[in-house]
Amino acid sequence: MSIVSIEPATAERWDDLENLFGPTGAYGHCWCTFFRRRAKDHTASVSCDRSTRGLDNKDELRRLTLDGRVPGLLAYDGDGPCGWVSVAPREDFIRLSRSRTLRPADPGEPGVWSLVCFWLPPRRRRRGLGSRLLDGAIEYARAGGARVLEAYPVDTAGGRAPSAEVYTGTVEMFRRAGFTIQGHHTSERVVARLALKAE
């Protein structure tokens, strides 16, 4: 793989993010806003006509980015933007607090950041780029003052699964990066946690 840099998705990089996600807004016109919006506000790909599909989601991500919120990180190589990871303070992802399967055991726990999504164009997958984005997310969260980085991976039991099913990452990739994997307190999902600061 060529040299890759991992950079914050700042306002100046909005065009790169828009171009990377393309006309489908990454997965199903989501524009990586699923966890950032209440269910009634998120425009699902099947709920609106084709010409406006996902536009509200795109507008939300654009607004956040241009307002300086840095919704995630972009990977770049010699050809330009080539990957994405969404990482931010957990409270930015309002859907987590309302989720039956991912609701935090302690919503008021201080210093927790969440990693909720990866996206790579199909030709960039299975080349280690996801792990590089994960490493970048760890360092970015640590630099931002996070005490813990939390994620919600899918257990593929070491096998492969369609990318749209593992957009939150796999248990194995987080385990390799040093995360502790534990069962969710009320569901069959798992939570990956990495301490970034000594207690």
Automatic annotation (TrEMBL):
Q: Where is the N-acetyltransferase domain?
A: 32-197
Q: Which residues cross the membrane?
A: none
Question: What Pfam families does the entry give?
Answer: Acetyltransf_1
Record InterPro entries: Acyl_CoA_acyltransferase (IPR016181), GNAT_dom (IPR000182)
Q: What is this protein called?
A: GNAT superfamily N-acetyltransferase
Say which species the protein is native to: Nocardiopsis terrae
